[in-house]
Amino acid sequence: MARLSYLKALQRALADEMARDENVCVLGEDIGVGVNNVTTGLLAKHGPLRVVDTPLSEQAFTSFATGAALAGQRPVIEFQIPSLLFLVFEQIANQAHKFSLMTGGQAKVPVTYFVPGSGSRSGWAGQHSDHPYGLFAHVGVKTVVPATPEDAYGLFLTAIRDDDPVMLFAPAGSLGVRGDVDMDALGPVPLGVGRVHREGTDVTVVAVGHLVQSALAVAEQLADQISVEVFDPRTLHPFDWDGLAASVAKTGRLVVIDDSNRMCGIAGEILATAAEQMRLTVPPKRVTRPDGAVLPFARELDLAVQPQQDQLLTAVQEVYKSSR
Amino acid sequence: MNMAEGLYRTMRLIRRFEERAIELVHAGEIIGGIHPYIGQEAIAAGVCAALRDDDVITSTHRGHGHVLAKGADPVRMLAELTGRATGLNQGRGGSMHAADFSKGIYGANGIVGAGGAIATGAAWAAVKEGSDRVAVSFFGDGAVNQGVLLEAFNLAALWRLPVLFVCENNGYATTLTVAQAVAGSITARAEAFGIPAVSVDGADAAAVLDAARDAVARGRTGGGPSFIEATAYRFDAHHTWEHKARVRYRADEEVAAGRSRDPLDIQGVRLDAETRAGIDADTETLMAEAVAFALDSPRPDPAGALDHLYATGLRGRDGIGLLDTAVR
């Protein structure tokens, strides 16, 4: 087993796919120098026709990728901050995503939109700290949030090979995660298949992205009192409802932790689906950012808005107690 | 067939297609209405006559002319507008999204100015492949105020991409005149990015073709993007809905003056009368077939309403929550 960091896994996935398929190209701001360390070395290896340093023109280069994809390329766009996605919502939600249906299946748009550093990076304040994955899942764009190095590798590979537009959010809180990985076993991870990181029988905790690590820590902390199952959906759309149902069938209790806003968020969708279709023995809970939150600058304010591990711990205890 | 005849035949097809489509709107056979292209036919005909089958176009919400001129089958196109399963897009696109990828037609588009960056990306893909394909983006005068289009000019010029930007200046962005909407000149917007720009008479198909040939040749030989402003007059409404809403924003005299320069007559007089009459008769026959085919065609099966949502065939959950007992 070798140690692999999440960031290195992303870099390796992109490099491997570019080496495998000459139609894969990457574009974005400051990617030539590899400002996020994901594209490091690719320009020297593949040249400026496959590693395209773009001017600050998010709307144009996002639809530029759509046009290139319609013409047979498989572009990957690296967005330096998640909030840029608000600028290009038209280009993704209203153009790229809609081409297949509107043309009656004549067109496909295999673009990967990739955000290495979504969510809070501490001190980046209001316009650089959102986690807007719920917006894309809502409009129907395939949306992926890997939590571990091997999933980052495998899901990035799958996203690039997918014939539809795919959003890939790499949470800032995950970039430094390292894990023991069997390098020979690294390979594509299918969309829509969740992962149980830790089995349990009392409470199912669904954790999105970097919060998987928080959920695992809580499960460990409570190990002698409550048996917590940690379910990582890995992709938010399509969502592994069967996997969640199997977990909830064992535990009957559900807590979701998600670092995006509460109102109309993915956590709400998970709770609603569980309430409609699964057998819950007690009302579920969610730990999220507050309604409509804007992340404040000061560290203590920033942390006050993000869902925390101790809040999850309390929620799990409350859900467990209320059924006894 | 010589070029003069070809241009006229394309324009005649667009004109009669549009007139028949307007009839079908009023008859309730085309729902949602259309944005008529009547009066602007010479632009689509002239530009597309300079293109090959493998060249790419992106079009506008007023897109029938471009789609037909680039070679889409008018019969299947009318079936699309009437929402039939036999339509170009199997009834999934309608007037504003009609597309035929086998002919390089990346579709009409419902968002003003949206096609510019898409065409630029397609042009880049051609360069990356080592092909001499070009891409053409049609848009209206209203689009030159959209930021994404100006960003696309910058990318195209910076990277010398084979894209031809065709601004159809019909004087109005919906009801707002160019004078009320555009600061400075339209061609200057392109020139500011170093893109060669010309203005042509968009009622004269031969003049449009000349300009397009120069631009396409420049694109094919590595000379980068070009810009054509083609001025024309929209004879009819912005949208067929206008007649119901009784919106008034153009004086009768202005409309009459605009209609007096009919692009079909300007090109038609270059043909002998017999040839012109023959093309007109062929077009009538074709459009009669198209209308019959469209109205006789089956409507799509509602069970397939979300077919093609994903190229990979992914099916999401349906929207009936409580009634949907199966967890999917």
UniProtKB/TrEMBL annotation, chain A:
Keyword terms of this UniProt record: Oxidoreductase, Pyruvate, Thiamine pyrophosphate
UniProt-recorded Gene Ontology molecular function terms: magnesium ion binding; oxidoreductase activity
Pfam families, sorted: Transket_pyr, Transketolase_C
Known cofactor(s): thiamine diphosphate
Domain named Transketolase-like pyrimidine-binding: residues: 4-177
InterPro entries named among the record's database cross-references: THDP-binding, Transketo_C/PFOR_II, Transketolase-like_Pyr-bd, Transketolase_C
PANTHER family on file: PYRUVATE DEHYDROGENASE E1 COMPONENT BETA SUBUNIT, PYRUVATE DEHYDROGENASE E1 COMPONENT SUBUNIT BETA
Protein name, as recorded: Pyruvate dehydrogenase subunit beta
Organism: Catellatospora citrea
TrEMBL record, chain B:
Keyword Oxidoreductase: yes
GO biological process: pyruvate decarboxylation to acetyl-CoA
Pfam families membership: E1_dh (PF00676)
Keywords noted in UniProt: Oxidoreductase, Thiamine pyrophosphate
InterPro entries: DH_E1, PDH_E1_Alpha_Subunit, THDP-binding
GO MF terms, alphabetically ordered: magnesium ion binding; pyruvate dehydrogenase (acetyl-transferring) activity
Required cofactor names: thiamine diphosphate
Domain Dehydrogenase E1 component: 10-266
PANTHER family: PYRUVATE DEHYDROGENASE E1 COMPONENT SUBUNIT ALPHA (PTHR11516:SF60), PYRUVATE DEHYDROGENASE E1 COMPONENT, ALPHA SUBUNIT BACTERIAL AND ORGANELLAR (PTHR11516)
Name of the protein: Acetoin:2,6-dichlorophenolindophenol oxidoreductase subunit alpha
Lineage: Bacteria, Bacillati, Actinomycetota, Actinomycetes, Micromonosporales
